[in-house]
Write a structure and sequence with these properties.
Layout (H helix, E strand, L loop, with lengths): L15 E7 L2 E5 L3 E3 H4 E5 L2 H8 L2 E4 L7 E5 H11 L3 E7 L2 E7 L7 H25 L2 H13 L7 H19 L13 H29 L12
């Protein structure tokens, strides 16, 4: 209240709320720090707050780190609170982020990729030929050709060539891929299996990381998913 009897408004600065959502996966270069922006999405009321928090370092990578590292949501929340003590942090989403630590300047070996491509091509071709030989497909083709034409041909190319083309086209349609081109947005069976494999590998890596932390610290480390319960 003022000395003249008037009323003076007293304003208090409201705390800014920052929302943090962990990314499922991230990738950083070995030797570079892992920042909040690398492993989490930040949403704040002011854009300058978002920019500052994205550059906050959560941890640093070194030669002792392996290929994968687990960053817990509590580590990110703690780093945000230390950088901005006056904000309220709200965590949503996953309780951790799995970070792949790659070597700087790593390029694929063209010779190795070519060798693997040749081996896969020859292996898949031999597997198809062995399967057809086991089930007696050449004899089946000759019998079908004789039933259709009445001619007993040793090599019924008029039946074998369309069959071979249809076999390749069926595989393309089944896997829904021609190199990088997809025919529809639906995932192929191979993509679903790779997705399930990736999920299982992520869960294993996270469980191993928390087990290692418990053994190192001698206390119970937070389990993944505990914040969502």
């Amino acid at each position: 209240m003022s000395s003249g009897g008037g009323i003076r408004a007293v304003t208090t600065k409201a705390e800014e709320t920052v929302f943090v959502r962990m990314r499922r996966r991230a990738c950083v270069t070995r030797g570079m720090p892992i920042t909040v922006g690398d492993v989490a999405g930040i949403l704040a009321e002011r854009p300058e707050t978002e920019r500052r928090l994205r550059e906050v370092v959560v941890r640093r990578t070194g030669a002792e780190d392996g290929v994968w590292a687990v960053v817990d949501a509590l580590d990110v929340v703690g780093a945000v609170r230390r950088a901005e003590p006056g904000v309220t942090v709200e965590h949503v989403g996953d309780p951790y982020s799995l970070v792949e630590i790659v070597r700087p300047g790593r390029r694929p070996n063209v010779a190795l990729v070519g060798l693997m491509w040749v081996l896969l091509f020859l292996g898949s071709g031999l597997a198809i030929m062995n399967f057809h030989e086991d089930v007696g497909m050449p004899q089946v083709h000759r019998r079908v050709y004789k039933m259709m034409t009445g001619v007993d041909a040793e090599r019924p190319y008029w039946l074998q060539i369309p069959y071979s083309i249809g076999l390749g086209a069926g595989m393309v349609l089944f896997f829904n891929h021609v190199f990088k081109k997809k025919f529809s947005d639906e995932p192929s069976p191979l993509e679903i299996e790779m997705f399930l494999y990736e999920q299982g590998m992520d869960q294993y890596l996270v469980a191993e990381e928390y087990r290692r932390r418990r053994e190192t610290n001698g206390r119970q480390a937070p389990d993944p998913g505990e914040e969502n319960r």
